[in-house]
Amino acid sequence: MDRVLWLYLGLMLSAGQALGRADSVRIDSVKRAINRFLGDKQYARAAQSYEQLGYLYHQQFGYNKYTMDAYFNGLKYYSLAGDSLGYYQQHLVIGDYYTHDYFMQSSAEKYLTKALQYFRRVRNLPKIIECRLGLANIDQKKVPIPAGLATRLREVEQLSAANKQTYFQAFAQNLLANTYSQLKKPDSAQYYASRSLILAKQLNINWLIALNHFYLGIVEQFKNNPQAALKAYEQSVTLARSENNVGMLRELAKHSATSYSSMGNYKQAYEASLRALDFADEFYLSEQTKSIRLQELDSQIKTLEIEKQLVEQQSAHQRLLNTTLAIILIISVLGVVALIFLRRQQKLIAHQQSVIAQQQIRQLELKSLRAMIEGQEGERSRIARDLHDGLGIQLSRIKLFVEAHQEQLPNSVKEPLNQFLDEACTETRLVSSNLRPYTLTTFGLIPALEDLVQKLNLVNETRLILEHYGELPPLGDEASVMLYRVVQELLNNALKHAQAGQITVQIMANDETLLISVDDDGRGAEFPEVPTRGNGITNIKSRINYLGGQVMWQSEPQRGTSVMISLPIPRLLKTESIPE
Fold first, then answer.
1. Which end of the chain, N or C, is less packed with Cβ atoms under 10 Å?
2. What is the pTM of this model?
3. CA neighbours within 13 Å on the CB side: how many for 119?
4. What tens digit of pLDDT does each residue of 547-576 get?
5. Is 142 exposed, middle or buried (0-12, 13-18, 19+ CB in 10 A)?
6. What are the residues whose beta carbons fall under 8 Å from the beta carbon of 309, sequence distance 6 or more?
7. pLDDT tens across 358-409, in order?
8. What secondary structure does DSSP assign to 205-240, as a single string?
């Protein structure tokens, strides 16, 4: 059932349009219906019936305890039915009803605020307007009146008009009339009271018609028209009596006394003042009003007890939840730690596998390089032996044969033939020596390099110089051969390409490192950071890498070339065997 507002100036206003005084027969009928609905557990219909019962009690008794009991039961059964709209609608009804009593304004504000918060969430515009008007009705009773109240009421009045909420528009205009009258602005108060009266008559809302006559009487009193004010008050009194609105009757009697006094009719003023006191006692000192206040205090105590129980339950639940979350957090942390550990282990294993794979590749490369070098040196040795034992012996036999029969040869043939044979023997010995230097095998690296430089100086215009510093320890055969070949290759490259006037070979040794440098003053070249082209350079790099060393080229055009080789001595003393 739609409810109505009960409102009045200053201390109270009644809600809802009066439909007539309900008799006990109708009340008993609603009670029987409630018992039937509760027996069938139809809580929503029971809640609606309790709301209707509260309205009937109000029609019969005015502001009373029985109405409040009915409204609170409606609140309870709307909650059991899970009807949020009905539940907060009851908050709105209870909040409006409490505005009758000056001492219950804080409770009224609490219920209306909770209702407003809900209706804003669900965007129920008519209910939002109704809640705002109820809260404004409370604000206008405060001293002083809150700043901006008139502005807020004009906004609500315009919003009601825009959404065709005529009832709320009329009520907003009525509140504006009261607000402006308290702000001592009679013209504005008369304007809004007149407009509200027109709408109230169209809607046939007696309590609102009575209020507007009351405000118009106040305006006339303010303008010093006491007779016009009393006439307006009389119209309002008739309607207030029909509505059983004791609070409004009290206010009308008080303002009537003021009007009679301004007219000099002190007897009527005294009688009106006595009536105002009687109405005040009837309302504020009545058992009904006291019981409502006690009921609200008892409700607040019960609410606090329930909230305390809820807080305790929530605390226990929160402790359980916190414990559960802590356990989950610990398990999660342990899981994350385990995942991080496993991830690191996987990375470590992958790294180890990568290192092992690289080592295996390196070992395969070393085995391949060693096989290649051994094959090269073996082939050089074989060719050297073939030249020495085959071609060398044949050339020697030819030379001996020519010497034995040189008397039979003419001089023009003998001398060139001997010269050719000598050159062929010398060339054969040089080639054989280069392929497998006898000096290297017999005396070591330094003497072999000195012999190489000496021989190259005999057949080249470029001057070659060998310098060595520090005592070179005995090197392994494999290392000696490789270093000899590297220096030999570097010298051959320089003689062939550098067009140098001088080539210097320097060998420096200490306990840990052997340094070899080959420098020329030739035309130079633009080498990349690590030169890779040419079989000779590739062979040099392969042999130095095999020995665990490093090689670096430095060259600039027209400023010569420098090659620096660094080798670890321990690796040269005894070449490590390559794992099978």
1. C
2. 0.48
3. 22
4. 888 999 888 887 889 999 999 988 888 544
5. exposed
6. none
7. 777 767 766 666 666 666 666 666 676 666 556 667 677 676 777 666 777 7
8. -HHHHHHHHHHHHHHHHHTT-HHHHHHHHHHHHHHH
